[in-house]
Specification:
Helix content is 29%, strand content 33%. By secondary structure, the protein is α+β, with helices and mostly antiparallel strands. A hairpin with a 5-residue loop joins strand 2 and strand 3. Helix 2 packs antiparallel against helix 3, helix 3 runs antiparallel to helix 5 and helix 7 runs antiparallel to helix 8. It is globular, with a radius of gyration of 27 Å. The two termini are 52 Å apart.
Length: 313
Amino acid sequence: MEENLSKWLNGDISDEELKKLIGTEEALKYIQILGEVDNWVPDNSERLIDPKEITSRPKGKVRTMRPWYSYAAAAMVFLAMATYLWFQMLDTTVTHSSLAGEIREIELPDGSIVTLAPNSEISWESDKWEEAVAYRENRLKSTKVRRKVKLKGKALLKVAKGAPFSVESPTGTVDVLGTIFEVDDFNEGLSVTCFEGKVQARPKTLNKVVTLTRGEGYLFFNGKWEKKENTTESEPAWLQNQTKFENAPLSQVIKTLEKVYGVTISSGKIDIAKRFTGTIPNDKLEVALRLVFSPYKISFKREGKTVTLTQEN
């Protein structure tokens, strides 16, 4: 982490790149500290002094004094660092993220494996996971122990046996025991596919839980659950450098393209609720764009890292 901070302080990497490298919450602490120091302005105003006032003062011992504002600046830096270290001691969050186009494998404290899809993030509280590990090793007897991670984006999870396990995303929560499953939170909805075992998924905006077993998938979109076609695959296609969609909303496809290729897609007035079924490559953007949008007579224009979509007449 020290190397990344050094690059950031030297201007070699941006704030956003630092967030991806060391985690959003961790990076924001350093950005805040630097901002407080940079924004401090000493009082450099001039004051007119009457020479007679100085010469009329009684003489005393002469002592060299440092300017008061140097002490104030030092105090401010000290307080900022002390505050940061205090929160560091209180904060037990562990965060891992993947960059655009990157697939990253993370091992959880209990041996469970999380494979992050491009531009995704997983986090957990290390102190709570210490209890989960102790429970798994029969060093702790409790019915309240739970394993919990927070996910932003998409990931494949291979969960080791142990205490109840849950994945929280901005759209909903997936609860499991020992299993292999995929969760894809794409802001407008939530897609869950179970490759092994059994999971339960519940959105935050609907009081309805769906249960998935091996080969089953569900999509939460427009306020309701939709049953997906069963799959015989043992893992998602994106692990093999391609992505497969089954009756997926264009909003989900667009979010996937943005994360895989590191681009921003402006959808304009196109209907992002339209559905797409097919497989697209994860290493050929032009091909992927044509495969997705040509059937709907949607044209696209690339300018750097921005793709603009236009509905043809």
